[in-house]
Predict the 3D structure of the following.
Amino acid sequence: MERSVIRSVWNSGVPLLVVRLAVGGLFVYLAWNKALDPVNFMKLTHEYGVLPAQPPYLNLTGVLVPWIELVCGLALILGVFVRGAALTILGMLLFFAPLLLLRAYTLYTDPANAGAYASFCDVKFDCGCGTGEVYICAKMIENTFATIGAALVLLVSRQRLCLGPVLGRWAARRLAAVAAQGAGAGPIR
Amino acid sequence: MRTVLSIVGQALVLCVIGGAIGLGVNGCGGLRHFAVNAGLYESKDSHDYIDLFRDYFRKPEPRPIVNPNGTPTNSAATGPGNGGVATDDDGPNLMDLSGPTGEHPFRAVTLKQAVQIHEDMLAGRSYIVFVDARATVPFEAGRIPGAIQCDYYRPDEVVQLAPQLYGAEKIVVYCNGNDCEDSLMVCGGLIENEVPWHSIYLFKGGWEAWERSGQPYETGPAQE
């Protein structure tokens, strides 16, 4: 009885919709903050030292990444290209999480910061995530939930409560109507 | 396999759409430009867009340093040799580009020296300028009194400031402190715009050291 209730709730698509809205909403918010100050985002990305400092690498990163995140977040919220959006977001999270940890560890073990942090979780810095300075542990918890959410959306093959199929059917009908009009016009003499 | 390709294809399409929007908005002056004009955002800074071809992180290039009288210096790269304010004899020979945490081509001043120079500035003993290399939000949250802002990442900020500093006897540049590189970038930019090297001083401790020591500070927008 309980299992059938859980199954019917899951099959309704509502839990996955909640996950999509949460992850998508978070990324839209973070991406918006980054897009408003792309230079600061580029500066903070430079501090990780993973990309060459010469143009156009960091410059393009500063321009493209916030908007890709924003589009993917919106796609998750609206239910368009959901699994592709989840894949992109998951990729970004898995790429940046080790860098965040490494950066926090570097700050924690830096002799110049000796005594500044009582524990690793006290390390606080602007990670370039769009929220200003954050405590590393809180940020990792947030990232973990986002990663699990994105992975869940990616792995579920049957997506419900999505705008994508509705838009797809509308587009197919429009194309069919245009094609029928074109065929009805007949060959050009 | 088809499913995997379909998912990857969706991801690529979204990346292309996002990238195209990003390039388009950046080319039109940035998102903040639109948001401020639409009244959605109160502009606190102007890092609106990124110049795709500008090297934002280029450190000052090496060049031989000469004394004010034109003779080359031979002294090693050190800061001020005594406990007093840095003098012209304390300059380095060739520029070392290790950055502000190591050897660097500008004379460093300690907090004590920066406070002394600031007192000289307030007393009007000579033309002294403090330059804050941070962005607008931290600048307005707290700065050394009388400091003028020079955000290296804003287009042409250094170029516009440099002519005002040609006659300065001492220009003390600072940012947050520790591993902040913005002050070093500003110093390099000033030299490239013909500000005499021997008038530039790098306050490595920066705002953090000034604030921690309980020195007076000012807040709010810069006074015209």
Q: What stands out?
A: The CA atoms of residues 12 and 130 of chain B lie 49 Å apart.
